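Notes from the pairing session

We agreed to fold both candidates in a single pass and log them together. This is the raw record for the first candidate, unedited. Please don't reformat it; downstream parsing expects exactly this layout.

Candidate A
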Amino acid sequence: MGIIKKSFTLLETLVSVIILLVLISGFTYASYYQNFNEEYILLNKIENLFTLKDYSSNFEKKHIAVKIVINDSIVKNINVEKNIYKSKNIILFKYE
């Protein structure tokens, strides 16, 4: 009868820990997460500007006439202002 192995050896445990450390550190230092944090901060800043209606030089303003048709008979024309934020990765707009 052979010896039955009931536990990990020290070498197997060390190899497993090293593999886990490499995987975790790889995900931690990946550039995707750094860009995600920067984009999140930028989106939060833009949201605050929209909330405060602080449309500074970062925004483009356009006046647009919107035509609304209700039940194929009632037509309403509304003049709205479209505030647009454009950057390399983000395009946001808001109608007021």
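Candidate B (folded immediately after A)
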Amino acid sequence: MKRTPDLTLVTAADQNYFWGLYLLAASVERGALGNRLVIFHTGLDADSERLLTQFRRVELRKFAEKESPLGLHCRKAEAMLQAEGEYLAWLDSDCLVIGDVNEWIIPGNGEMQARLRKPEETIADLGRFYQPHEPRGGLPRIILERWRDDVGERATPRLDAMVPSNVFVLHSKYKPFLEHWDRQMAKVLTPGIGTLDFDQPAYFLTDESVLNSLLAFADFAPEVAEYRLALERDRHVAHFMGSPKPWVRWLPRNLYCLPFTHELILWLRAQGMELPPLPRSLDPAKRSRAVIEAQVMARWQRLRSLPGKVWKRARTATTWPRRGLGGSPIRGALTP
């Protein structure tokens, strides 16, 4: 009989993300995923704690109070280091487990699974940092060079793409790697920085950038296996990236999760679980309204972006190429 590995799911949030924690905990319970869900927090109120601990997999742990210049998003390694289990899975508190993903949650190589970003995603996120004539799609050279110097171990990178830090699974033998991640964030990130740092190209994505610098250049780091938690639409881990979140209003790109979320609410009622007062966007009786609001928002965003697109095209069509010192045009330069 095949042994079932001991798996601990880990997340963290404050009171502002209660609904994210509640939906995540409910979806983990419905999908019977893992052995436990450890929620680290910085001060949930008593009602929130009661509602979360009714799920049998949930363990609440309050973060130790400490003087730290870094935000909650930079305490992922700290949380995972305190969790027990053969495998540790990090899920951001705005994730949702859709269906049964048990057969795919353990990394195929026994080390780590995370989603490698596609070249077009790398260009969208980091395109501003490419040097002139540098091939696009991989990690910008200026970022790789800074990572190599800051890590100070390997000379060549293992990866030429980044993995998001919102969902990944790691074998516990790599806890020393997590310790390195924690130390490195304290070393290289700007104190008081939010989730993005526009002044540091190498650490533009803050905690995520540091994680990837170590995956690329640390001597002791896991090999990243194929990401299997997005193989099927009705069995995967969803991430509600962006704002607003679904418990406020649905973004068009997240609408595909709305039926499952409403099914989850109905399942909770059938199980006799206690629900907090539902926001309108999560009320199954108001599904049509939630869809209409998301569609109206999408149209408004498209209309609002039109003037900028027209202006950008006009500038590109009417400006001359810049010229170098010798008077010859500089290739690829379309604006003055």
